[in-house]
Specification:
- The protein is α/β, with parallel strands linked by helices and about 240 residues long.
- The chain is built from 7 helices and 10 strands.
Length: about 240
C-alpha cells in the first residue's frame, strides 16, 4: 500500500495502544472494511468496542422500520462475535436523520469516558467517497460529532463527570490513507462478520450474501505477497 501522491509505501500504524472504540452511524458500517482491523486487534489481545448511533431501521427497503431495527440489531450482534468485539452500544439516534447536535456529542463523550479507548476509529465523514460519490448526511454528521466528542470527553465543564483525555489518535477509514495496518489475520473473520448482515445484504442484491461479503472485503485490501493491508487516515 503506497501513498497516492508520492508512491512511497505508507508507514505502519504504531502498535502502541491497547484499546479501540469504533464509532459509526449504522449497523454494518464497521463491517464494510473496519472489521478486518477489529479482528486483527482482538486476536492480538486489544480491547475493541463498537458504538453505533442508530439501529439502521430505515435501511431495509420494504421492511417496516420497527422490524428492521430488530433484524439489524440482531445481525450486528452476530457480526461482533465473528471479530471478537464484546462491547456493542447503540445510541438510538434516528436512522437517516442523524444530526450533529450538542446532545449527540455528549452521548458519545460519555461512552468514550466509559470505554476509555486509546484510539477512536471513524468511517469516512468527508463530503464524498473518493471525490466521486456524495457521502450520506448520517456519516458526515456522526463523524464530526465524534471528533468533537473526543475533546468534550476531556472537558469536565462541557460534560460533567470524570474527564478522559487519553485518546491519542483518531483513525478514519474510507478517506485518503496516511498509514496502513497488516490485517492478514483478520480477513476471514471480517468476511464472516459482514455476511452476518444477511437480510440487509439480501435486500441490496440477488448475489449470494457470502459472495457480496467477500467482494466487499477484498475491495478494501491491498496485498503484498501473502500479506493484506488496510489503510486509514490518522489524526494525532
Amino acid at each position: 500500500m503506497t501513498d497516492a501522491q508520492s508512491g512511497a509505501p505508507l508507514p505502519d500504524l504504531p502498535d502502541d495502544f491497547s484499546s479501540v472504540l469504533v464509532i459509526v452511524a449504522h449497523p454494518d458500517d464497521p463491517e464494510y472494511g473496519i472489521g478486518s482491523a477489529a479482528a486483527t486487534w482482538t486476536r492480538a489481545g486489544k480491547r475493541v468496542g463498537y458504538l453505533l448511533a442508530s439501529r439502521g431501521e430505515a435501511g431495509i427497503e420494504g421492511m417496516d422500520p420497527a422490524e428492521s431495527a430488530v433484524v439489524r440489531t440482531r445481525e450486528q450482534e452476530a457480526a461482533c462475535k465473528e471479530v471478537g468485539v464484546e462491547s456493542l452500544v447503540f445510541l438510538d439516534e434516528p436512522d437517516g436523520r442523524i444530526l450533529e447536535t450538542p446532545e449527540l456529542r455528549t452521548s458519545i463523550a460519555r461512552e468514550i469516558r466509559r470505554f476509555q479507548p486509546d484510539i477512536v476509529v471513524l468511517l469516512n465523514f468527508q463530503q464524498t467517497w473518493g471525490g466521486r460519490f456524495f457521502n450520506s448526511a448520517d456519516h458526515r454528521n456522526l463523524g464530526q460529532a465524534a471528533v468533537d466528542a473526543v475533546a468534550d470527553a476531556a472537558n469536565e465543564w462541557i460534560v460533567p463527570g470524570a474527564r478522559y483525555d487519553k485518546v491519542s489518535r483518531i483513525l478514519e477509514f474510507g478517506a485518503h490513507p496516511t498509514h496502513r495496518i497488516d490485517v492478514t489475520d483478520g480477513v476471514e473473520a471480517a468476511v464472516a462478520s459482514l455476511a452476518c448482515h444477511r437480510e440487509y445484504l439480501a435486500a441490496l442484491s440477488d448475489d449470494p450474501v457470502e459472495d457480496q461479503a467477500r467482494a466487499q472485503i477484498d475491495s478494501t485490501l491491498t496485498w503484498e505477497g501473502d500479506r493484506a493491508h488496510l489503510g486509514f487516515r490518522v489524526y494525532g
